[in-house]
Amino acid sequence: MYDDKEKNGSYRELLFDERWLKKRAHIIQRDNFRCVICGSTTKLIVHHKQYHKNAQSNQKCLPWDYDDKYLVTLCESCHCRGHQKYQIPMKIINQ
């Protein structure tokens, strides 16, 4: 778990963590190295379908702590279009 306000830096920094890079590689491989929407094989991003926040601590889950079912491979273009069209839901969880 992490708290945006306490984190010196940003969420982006977490995406360089070895644990995320390993999880990211696993998801891209699972999705056959292509965007699940358009089939592109370039500029791939692993997208969180929803974010989770701990009910007691109010802290967000770390990017690599999500179950694989909440992650999907998208190309940069589909990822941007999705963020413009939809807001990613925040789910409160009890841990």
**Sheet/helix structural class:** alpha+beta
End-to-end C-alpha gap? 11 Å
Task: Give the amount of beta strand, in percent.
Answer: 15-25%
Unreliable residue runs: none
What's the tally of helices?
Answer: 3
Helix proportion: 25-40%
User: CATH first level: which class?
Assistant: Alpha Beta
Domain tally: 1
Mean pLDDT: 88
Q: What is the CATH topology classification name?
A: His-Me finger endonuclease fold
Elements, N to C (H/E): HHEEEHE
Query: Mind describing the biggest β-sheet?
Result: 2 strands, antiparallel
**What spatial order of strands do you see in the largest sheet?**
1-3
Please state the second-level CATH architecture.
Answer: 3-Layer(aba) Sandwich
| Rg computed from alpha carbons, rounded to a whole number of angstroms | 14 Å
The counted number of beta strands is: 4
